[in-house]
Amino acid sequence: MNIKVVGITASILLASTSAFAQSSTVTGAAGGAATGAIVGGPVGAAVGGIVGGVAGSVIDPPPQKVVTYVQQAPAPTKRVVVKEKVVVGQPLPETVVVTPIPDDPKYAYAIVNDQRVIVEPSSRKVIQVIQ
């Protein structure tokens, strides 16, 4: 019984994700719920709402001028190292100092574990890791 439920849930999740990806007019949790309901009924609406909420909350990639600024910014004299892995979508630890981008306050950056990262200042979430 549990295997069937897991299989059905996975199928609905995959179906609602692909259906959501094809729709560009409805986004976020509401769009995901509507798409999920069409694909999988009430269970699909719940799963689609979760998928759509996550997909709808993703921050747009920063403009090229922000990326260029972060690439060219001088590295601090003191190296910042944290135990946690720097992951897109996850906030930086509070111990890491983030520096606002002067021409675009929507973004900030930090250099952590020898990686330059662009973050959303208020949440400290990593938007992009510069390679």
UniProtKB/TrEMBL annotation:
Pfam families, per the entry: DUF1236
Q: Which InterPro entries match?
A: DUF1236 (IPR009642)
Keywords in alphabetical order:
Plasmid, Signal
The signal peptide stretch is: 1-21
Name recorded for this polypeptide: DUF1236 domain-containing protein
> What lineage does the source organism belong to?
Bacteria, Pseudomonadati, Pseudomonadota, Alphaproteobacteria, Hyphomicrobiales
